Amino acid sequence: MMKLKSFLFLIGCVFTANVFAQQGFPFDNEIRAFKHQDSLSFPKPGGILFIGSSSIRLWDDLEQRFAGKPIIKRGVGGSQLYQLVDYFTPYILFPYHPRKIFIYAGENDIADGKSANFVADEFVKLWTMIHQQLPGVEIYFMSIKPSPVRAKNYAVVAQANTLIKAYLKNKPKSHYVDLVTAIYKPGTTTPDSSLFKADYLHLNPKGYDKWQAVLQPLVK
Fold first, then answer.
1. Contact assessment for residue 20 and residue 28, using Cβ atoms and an 8 Å cutoff
2. What is this structure's pTM?
3. Which contiguous run of DSSP H or E holds residue 96?
């Protein structure tokens, strides 16, 4: 039986490699790395999946901040929400059968010139896919952050967040998580630049402290 499982896994790896090569798969090296990691130690079902772009990938101490919880971190640096929908779910989402999924994506789509409606529509596609494939899972959309270096996008970011929040309002096992106000300067509606790295795009440890405070009651 073990030989059969090993053979089937090898066939799956070859098939995956061929798919990546043929389709111009985005961020294929990162996805391959995750699948290699899975081949060495596959996460147990019922974990808590954090998935999305570099704000997840660069959260270096995510697992330590939620110690004792079955965290699965699958951030793909620079990725867009539509790529999660079109490419990544069969590889770094559905196979894990998590009980909770925290999603941070959409910021890079907007930076690439896509509209708030496009981002919201892509999220609706993703929510529908997850709900169909994993109907019992709890879905948490982590609101798109207004990054100081992308100040020109603030209005689009706010609109996308509003659309997704409204969509999730009456959806089962679905939650909009407001992480935007957590990083505002006190008494203002602008992000506190001291919570960001020098690139003013990615959070620093103090910024992740703010996120953790909001997420702590949800990651359980």
1. yes
2. 0.90
3. none
